[in-house]
Amino acid sequence: MPDAVSAPADPARRPRSVYGVGEEPEVQASLANERTALSWIRTGMALVAGGIALATLASFGDLPVVIIAIAGLASLGGGVLAVWALVSWRRVERALRRREPLPSPSALPWLVGGVVAVALFLAVFSGFEALQAVP
């Protein structure tokens, strides 16, 4: 029986662009890559759910259009994050199979920048709303 680490890739497994290259990686590394991708997908789903909740809340009251815009951005960001999770999983899995250095997390700086931008925007918006409420 061949060693699981050095066994050639199974051409019948899909996607072939991932499983058709290199050798089987260590199980722990492959499963850690999968868990990371699933965590990013859960984060994307949470953003979509938050966007839906904000859009629903906005439909019940006279809320500023900025809330609806944030709902749309959250939903769009969640979808983009889920797609990025799949792309990142494929890149890392191929690197593991080829015994190459792991690629850097390309979307993480964008995600952090987006969170900081939304936080700053909400802080400024809240400040203006508070100033308008003062008689």
Automatic annotation (TrEMBL):
The entry's keywords: Membrane, Transmembrane, Transmembrane helix
Stretches that traverse the bilayer: 40-60, 66-87, 108-128
Record keyword Lyase present: no
Keyword GTP-binding belongs to the record: no
Localization, UniProt: Endomembrane system
Domain DUF202: 31-95
Lipid bilayer topology: Multi-pass membrane protein
Primary location: membrane
Pfam families reported in the protein's UniProt record: DUF202
Top-level division of the source organism's lineage: Bacteria
Single GO cellular component term: endomembrane system
Protein name as annotated: DUF202 domain-containing protein
Phylogenetic classification of the source organism: Bacteria, Bacillati, Actinomycetota, Actinomycetes, Micrococcales
